[in-house]
């Protein structure tokens, strides 16, 4: 059988030999999409033996503890899990073993229990979504004592022992929402920010989004567009949620812009009357099925896509680059702020969700 060469990989990938060489040897900067494609092609052609000959010879096993919300507790978390599994399929020949420590997104005690279980399992690293900010910082200190670095996705927390963060800049995403409202609102229109979930005080990414929105409003002199924010954690009780929404409407007859800080816009949008749909400009997050459906029905105007599949994928690939390939990884890796609207949503469904992350 002919030996696979860099030239072969470059020809199939549609890139230069220099680009393939940089990926294989960890030299220079290559976009994640191109790197993923090259790694997959190299793997399919059997070139991974050359990529990792020394690592395979050592018979080293690498363990990752993955502490993220149970995908069954919130549909958003199915997407990072998909990205994690896609990456693991590509790098399975590198001796990587993962242990999942799922927790109910709404149970802080479960998060604490699973984080302790993960640390006690003595992995090489922990990949986590630090949903509860204060508790995550405490477990980071515990992990530090055990020389276990953290790879974080979705929520950015600042600590010297975070190996890297992959996700959106939450402040900038709130700032972007402000720009979208700037294009839509008139003087006197009110903006309502709704956080259906954890309190802002213990969920850094939510408070950062609100801060970004307020910064845009202030710096662009939208003094006649006041911003109000509300939190509600009993959103699974539809009767209470409907009562909450009706109270918001009664309090704010001048409400025009509605900003949801997470993926749960659909939970309130489903209560919209036809008049509500025509009146309100809605900005939310995440391409989960019910949000997509309401986007297509003109009940949600903009979805800011947080690239959750890519978050999970890159979380694993950062582990491989750091621990296996001995490459330096960038500490903060912000992903693009994609604005999804009715007119381009099918492109994202057909191309981004199905093809951006290479599958084994």
Task: Write up this protein.
With 360 residues, this protein is an alpha/beta fold. It folds into 3 domains: 1-51, 434 Repressor (Amino-terminal Domain); 60-167 and 307-335, Rossmann fold, CATH 3.40.50; 170-305, 3-Layer(aba) Sandwich (Rossmann fold). The protein contains 16 helices and 12 strands. It has helices at residues 6-13, 17-25, 32-44, 48-51, 53-58, 78-90, 108-120, 133-145, 170-184, 204-219, 238-251, 265-269, 274-279, 289-296, 308-324, 345-356; strands at 62-67, 96-100, 125-128, 150-153, 162-167, 190-195, 227-231, 255-260, 281-285, 302-305, 332-334, 338-340. The strands form 2 sheets. It has a 6-stranded parallel sheet with strand order 2-1-3-4-5-11, with helices on both faces. The protein has a 6-stranded mixed sheet with strand order 7-6-8-9-10-12, sandwiched between helices. Helix 6 links the parallel strand 1 (62-67) and strand 2 (96-100). Helix 6 runs parallel beside helix 15 (308-324) and helix 9 crosses helix 10 (204-219). The longest helix has 17 residues, at 308-324. The protein starts with 5 loop residues before the first helix and ends with a helix.
Q: What's the topology here?
A:
Layout lengths: L5 H8 L3 H9 L6 H13 L3 H4 L1 H6 L3 E6 L10 H13 L5 E5 L7 H13 L4 E4 L4 H13 L4 E4 L8 E6 L2 H15 L5 E6 L8 H16 L7 E5 L6 H14 L3 E6 L4 H5 L4 H6 L1 E5 L3 H8 L5 E4 L2 H17 L7 E3 L3 E3 L4 H12 L4
Parallel strand pairs: 1-2, 1-3, 3-4, 4-5, 5-11, 6-7, 6-8, 8-9, 9-10
Antiparallel strand pairs: 10-12
Helix pairs in contact: 1-2, 1-3, 6-15, 7-8, 9-10
